[in-house]
Design a protein that fits this description.
By secondary structure, the protein is α/β, with parallel strands linked by helices. The protein has 16 helices and 14 strands. The protein has 2 domains: 185 residues, 3-Layer(aba) Sandwich (D-Maltodextrin-Binding Protein, domain 2), CATH 3.40.190.10; 151 residues, 3-Layer(aba) Sandwich (D-Maltodextrin-Binding Protein, domain 2). The strands form 4 sheets. Strands 1-3-2-4-12 form a 5-stranded mixed β-sheet, sandwiched between helices. Strands 8-7-9-6-10 form a 5-stranded mixed β-sheet.
Length: 351
């Protein structure tokens, strides 16, 4: 999988100028790498989905399925332009002018950033079911087969000689989920004593040897480049890696993790301008269809449909102890406390 992704990214690099022309308006923002479905008729409807790193394969499959759904219902072809990068960076690119009819990002706060810029209407989180989260995930550890360092839980990540790979919370939504899952473990371990929690987090991030800008980059660092003893990973990235390399890697479920809820939204200002409001809503609504939920499960994300989720019980560890963002007061409060410039992440990582 990742060899294919790297080859694909190399091709994308050769047409980067064209991608920027397609995705970026007068604001000149950078929307990361992008892929456009080919073969659409010249008069086809076109929408752009700005997403985050690990959803590449999921949306390649979903887009192909949705093309058939849209053709059947409307009689028209649809072209779907797909853009990927670190979730925080993708949100900022939309604010700066990148063309996006919809966003499918790693966490609600990244969409709130776009809302605060006036591009998404208030109340977006209730526009689709389950707080506009058609799939969920969680955070796990990916280790090399045999688990030479004996990594079983968060406390093993602070030991001397353990090299940790995790992306940067300043640019990656997945990295924010990673940080909060680790923080919750330390909070429980030290009874809420913030000094001890910060010392734990400082030791953990002191063991981080590479901090990529996005989750896919971190996976590439660990899998393709062979760096690190453990990758703090999206569950779907870990599942796909083990599927691709069953003899080389294994997944470790920590004693506590977090229910990660990626969010979706229509970029109302752009959709109105482009005349794509109806198709953008339809595109996101169909993520909740049974067939789409099965595609979601096949690509390592947890379907929001509980019945379909149970069909994938052999793929996911459904017994994991998961905290939620509500344990941190919601995303606005959590982001301000931990990830804004001068917040706790800066405090523990820079000192």
């Amino acid at each position: 999988m990742f060899n294919k992704v790297l080859k694909k990214m190399s091709v994308i690099g050769l047409i980067g100028a064209l991608s920027v022309t397609m995705l970026v308006g007068c604001g000149g923002g950078n929307a990361g790498s992008s892929d456009s479905d080919s073969g659409a008729a010249a008069d086809a409807v076109k929408i752009t989905n700005v997403s985050y790193d690990p959803t590449r394969e999921l949306y390649e499959a979903y887009n192909e399925w949705y093309k058939g759904i849209y053709k059947e219902s409307s009689g028209k072809d649809i072209e779907i332009v797909q853009s990927h990068g670190g979730s925080g960076g993708q949100a900022r690119s939309v604010v700066e002018g990148a063309e996006a009819d919809v966003v499918t990002l790693a966490l609600a706060h990244d969409i709130t950033l776009i809302e605060n810029a006036g591009l998404i209407e208030p109340g977006w989180i209730d526009e689709f079911d389950l707080q506009s989260s058609p799939y969920t995930s969680t955070i796990v550890f990916l280790v090399r087969k045999g688990n030479e360092k004996g990594i079983k839980d968060w406390e093993d990540l602070v030991k001397d000689g353990v090299d940790v790979i995790t992306p940067d919370p300043k640019s990656s939504g997945g990295a924010c989920w990673n940080f909060l899952a680790a923080w919750k473990y330390a909070e429980d371990k030290f009874g809420g004593d913030e000094t001890s929690i910060k010392d734990f987090m400082r030791a953990l991030y002191g063991n981080v040897t590479v901090m990529d800008s996005g989750a896919r980059g971190a996976t590439t660092t660990f899998v393709e480049n062979g760096q690190g003893d453990v990758l703090i990973a999206w569950e779907n990235e870990a599942i796909q890696t083990v599927k691709e390399y069953p003899n080389d890697y294994e997944i470790i479920s920590p004693s506590i993790s977090i229910l990660a809820q990626p969010s979706v939204a229509i970029v109302d200002a752009n959709a109105k301008k482009d005349g794509t409001e109806e198709v953008a809503k339809d595109y996101l609504s169909h993520l909740y269809d049974d067939e789409a939920q099965k595609i979601i499960g096949e690509y390592g994300y947890r379907p929001s449909n509980e019945k379909i989720l149970k069909e994938f019980s052999d793929k996911f560890d459904l017994s994991m102890n998961l905290c939620t963002i509500d344990d941190f007061g919601g995303w606005d409060a959590a982001y301000e406390k931990y990830f804004l410039d001068g917040g706790i992440f800066d405090e523990i990582y820079q000192n």
